[in-house]
Amino acid sequence: MLKLNAVKYNFEDFTLGPLNLELKKDSIIAVMGESGCGKSTLLELIYGLRDLNEGQIFWNDKKVLGPAYNLVPGAKNMNYLAQHDQLMPYSSVASNIQKFISRQEPKKSNQVTSGLLDLIDMKDYRGREVKTLSGGQKQRVALAQILASRPQLLLLDEPFNFIDTFQRVKLRRHILDYLKREKIPCIYATHDSADVLGFADKILVLKNGIKMAFEKTEQLFKTPETFYTASLFGEVNLCEAQLFDPEKKGGLMLYPEDIQRSKKKGVQAEVKKCYFQGSQYLIEAKILKTRQIINFISEKKLKFKAKIELELRDKNLIDYRLVKN
């Protein structure tokens, strides 16, 4: 459906690409990377809001052209929701959602609107003017509005960024499950790994405009090739593989949950700090041999300066968590 061939874009001292990318039908792709890596720029290029310097973008075998070739930029049958919504402030929430729904069938229009209001958990706000809503509520309405248009491809830029945490968890699950159920392909930019794990089919990782990885989500999480990629999923310990296996060499990337306290002889460490995280504790410990600080997860609270032994939860981690480049 969507194909990027050697796409390259230059803006002042920033260069994005060259990028090759293919989106298959019904796929959900997440674009991750630090701020300024080119996530938003890539979405704007795909939608036709910017002109390429090199390469080509095809949507349903038709070339996507930028504003230099179109009076009104934006590819047909796609829809793009930027970080800043374009709602009608003096109209009701329902009217904003119905903007892209045919009014020729009022009953169907109301049913679709009610379903989307339920999806974003805003049924009680149906008649409220948008100008009276909070930033997070406006973003939820903007999401419902764009879904009402039934796009053949949906592009989302940080779609859950301004939504309160307690609403974000449920909304993220509802929206991304809805896209899967309705078979709406989507590319969305995010910096939050919680937006990705369990939802995205594949992840495109960008750093300074360069593609670092493009893999299936589970594979990328389990076997990141670089520290940068691993760090997008949360805190990462970088240590020598020899610490846990004398026969292995190289840098080893470990998430805190990869390390556990050992009941037998292991890597000797001393507890420095203990952070309560609800059902578990994040422990900051100093490796006695190397003086390095390492973080791991514990089900129990550990005392300050307690001497402990550490081991890997899975010894096979060493084989696929070595830094490759």
What does this structure look like?
- The chain has 325 residues and is α+β, with helices and mostly antiparallel strands.
- It has two domains: 225 residues, 3-Layer(aba) Sandwich (Rossmann fold); 86 residues, OB fold (Dihydrolipoamide Acetyltransferase, E2P), CATH 2.40.50.
- The protein has eight helices and 17 strands.
- β9 and β10 form a beta hairpin.
- α3 crosses α4.
List keywords for this structure.
325 residues; alpha+beta; Rossmann fold; OB fold (Dihydrolipoamide Acetyltransferase, E2P); 2 domains; six-stranded mixed beta sheet; five-stranded antiparallel beta sheet; 8 helices; 17 strands; globular
How much helix, percentage-wise, in residues? Answer: 10-25%
Give the overall pLDDT as a whole number: 92
Helix segment tally: 8
CATH architecture of the largest domain: 3-Layer(aba) Sandwich
Strand order, sheet with most strands: 6-7-8-3-9-10
Q: CATH first level of the largest domain: which class? A: Alpha Beta
Tally of discrete structural domains: 2
Rg over C-alpha atoms, rounded to the nearest angstrom: 23 Å
- CATH evolutionary superfamily of the largest domain: P-loop containing nucleotide triphosphate hydrolases
Elements, N to C (H/E): EEEHEEEHHHEHEEEHHEEEEEEEH
Number of strands: 17
SS class = alpha+beta
Instruction: Note the gap between the termini.
Output: 32 Å
- Biggest sheet, open or closed, and with what strands and sense? 6 strands, mixed
The name CATH uses for the topology of the largest domain is Rossmann fold
Beta-strand level of the residues, as a percent range? 25-35%
Shape: globular
Could you name the ranges where pLDDT drops below 50 across 5 or more consecutive residues? none
